[in-house]
Design goal:
The chain is mainly beta. The protein is built from 1 helix and 10 strands; from the N terminus they run E-E-H-E-E-E-E-E-E-E-E. A hairpin with a 2-residue loop joins strand 9 and strand 10. The radius of gyration is 22 Å and the shape is elongated. About 10% of the residues are buried.
Length: about 160
């Protein structure tokens, strides 16, 4: 299993009063950042593996995940849910050039891989996935008990 590499400690911005972030706080922040980086799983297949860029939005009723998977077709995408871990896996192949000769080749083929650990507030049986123009939209509905609600106030 691989571990994240240690990043050099950066100097915080300073002002006339001194450092904006005390040294102790900076150290704590770096510890939290390193602890929150999940180890990258090892892959047993040859080729490149990309982590798709994602945006995550939350509303009162659901969490929405948008993942960029350019060039991926629905039949080449696998979404797996096991033990509260949602895994996105996709294969991407280079378009065939036919009889043409490559002059410049920047388009790389490989696969996509990304995992998310779901909390207990997600209603896993109602997760919905839609792939449109290379963007995967996952709707993760919240359990009723996890949704905010107004509490009526009684007077005596």
């Amino acid at each position: 299993m691989t571990t994240p590499t240690e990043l050099p400690e950066q100097q915080p911005p300073t002002s006339k009063e001194g450092p904006a972030v005390p040294n102790q706080s900076r150290s704590d922040i770096h510890k939290v950042e390193r602890a929150s980086v999940a180890p990258v799983p090892e892959h047993t297949r040859p080729g490149l593996v990309f982590a798709p860029a994602v945006d995550i939005f939350e509303s009162d009723s659901s969490i929405t995940v948008l993942a960029e998977l350019p060039g991926v077709k629905a039949e080449d995408l696998k979404i797996d849910l096991r033990e509260n871990v949602l895994t996105l896996t996709a294969t991407l192949t280079t378009p065939e050039a036919g009889a043409e000769v490559n002059v410049l080749k920047e388009y790389e083929s490989g696969g996509f891989f990304r995992q998310f650990t779901l909390g207990e507030t997600i209603e896993q049986s109602k997760i919905d996935a839609k792939l449109t123009d290379g963007v995967l939209r996952l709707e993760l509905p919240k359990l009723e008990r996890a949704r905010p609600r107004q509490i009526p106030i009684r007077t005596t």
